[in-house]
Amino acid sequence: MMLLIQNIDVYAPQHLGRKDVLTINDKIVRIAEPGTIPLITFLADATVIDGTGAVLTPGFIDCHVHVLGGGGEGGFANRTPEATVENLVKYGVTTVVGCLGTDGIGRDMCALVAKTKGLREQGISAYCYTGSYQIPVHTLTDSITKDIMMIEEIIGTGEIAVSDHRSSQPTFEEFARVAADTRLGGVLSGKAGIINIHMGDGPRCLDLVNRVLEETEIPASQFLPTHINRNEKLFREAIQYALKGGAVDFTGNEDIDYWETICDEVRVCYGMQRMLEAGVAPDRMTISSDGQGSLPIYSKDGEFLGMGVGQSSCLLKEIKECVFKTHIPFAVALAAITANPANILQLKGKGKIEEGYDADLCILDTSLNILKVIAKGKSVH
Ligand code: ZN
Predict the structure, then answer these.
(1) Quick check: pTM over 0.90?
(2) Could you confirm whether 147 is annotated as catalytic?
C-alpha cells in the first residue's frame, strides 16, 4: 500500500512549503522536494495524488470525545448516541481520545475500552481515559495505576469533574490521590498518565489543581483541564495556569455565535489570541470538541429549546476562525489539534508530518475545507 502525494503545500504543522510526501503502509517514509521521488518500478503500484494548489496537514486529534455518547441528564431519554468512524473522519479526525462523562454507571469502562478497540478495528487511532466525573474512580481493573499500566488503550484518568454541581465534590486529598495514582501509572508504563479535568462553572475554578502544584511534587504537565473557555473568570485563571506551564484544552463549538452570545463562553479564536498575547507558549494549547456530549440549547430568555450533540466538525471551524478572524498563523492554530495534543498526551507517531510518523493526513483546499482524509495510509474520506 503506497501513496505518493505530489507538489503539496505541507503544514507539519510548521510550514514546510511545497513537497512530495510518500507513505508506505501506515507510515510516512519520505518527504522531499517536488519531483524528486521518482516513480521507479517499486513505486509503480503507488496511488498518486496531484496536490497542486492544496494543503497537507497531519490528521486531526480530537482529545476529548464521549465516544459512547453522553448526557442522560434530565432523564434516560436524553442519552446521546455513540460516535461513529464516519462522523469523525468526515471532519478530518484520525485520532480520538474517548472518555465517559457525568454518567459512569449507564456506560462503564468495559464498554469504553470495547468501543475504543472497535474504533481501532475500523481504521482510525483511538485511546481512552479511565473513570468518569466521579471520585472514587470506577476503573476497569481494581486501580487507576493498573488500568494505565495494563490496558494499552488507557492513557490517563478523566474526565474528573471539579467546580461543578455534578462532580463528587472531591476533597484535596482525594483529588491529589487520583493525580498521584495516574502519574504512577504513566511513569511505570511510559505513557503520559494525564488527568483530564472537566472544569465546571463553579467559582472555585482551578483551585484544586493549583493546590496540587503548590503542595505536592506532581508537576503541571500531569493535568489537562478542559472546557477552560466556558466563562470569563475560569478563562482568566486558565491563562495564569498556562503561564505556569500547564496545558489547557479549549472546547470548540459548532454554533460559535450562540455559545459566545447566549452562554458567555470565550470564543476560541479570541481566547487563543489572548493566551498568546499574555505570553503562553503556543504548544500548551489544545482544542477538542466534547464530541457526542449533550448541549442543552436555551433561548435568549433562558427557555429550554432542546438538546444538541457535540461534533468534531467544530475543530476545523475553530481553526478557520483563528486564521481568518484573529490572524493567528495557520501553523500555530493547527498545532492545537495535531502536534500539541500528541505531545501532551504522548501519542507516539501522531500529530506531525515527519518521516517515520503515522500516515494520518488531511488534504485541504486553500480555504481550509477538507478534500480528503487518510488514516494509517488508507483513504478514509
Ligand atoms: Zn466535560
Answers:
(1) yes
(2) no
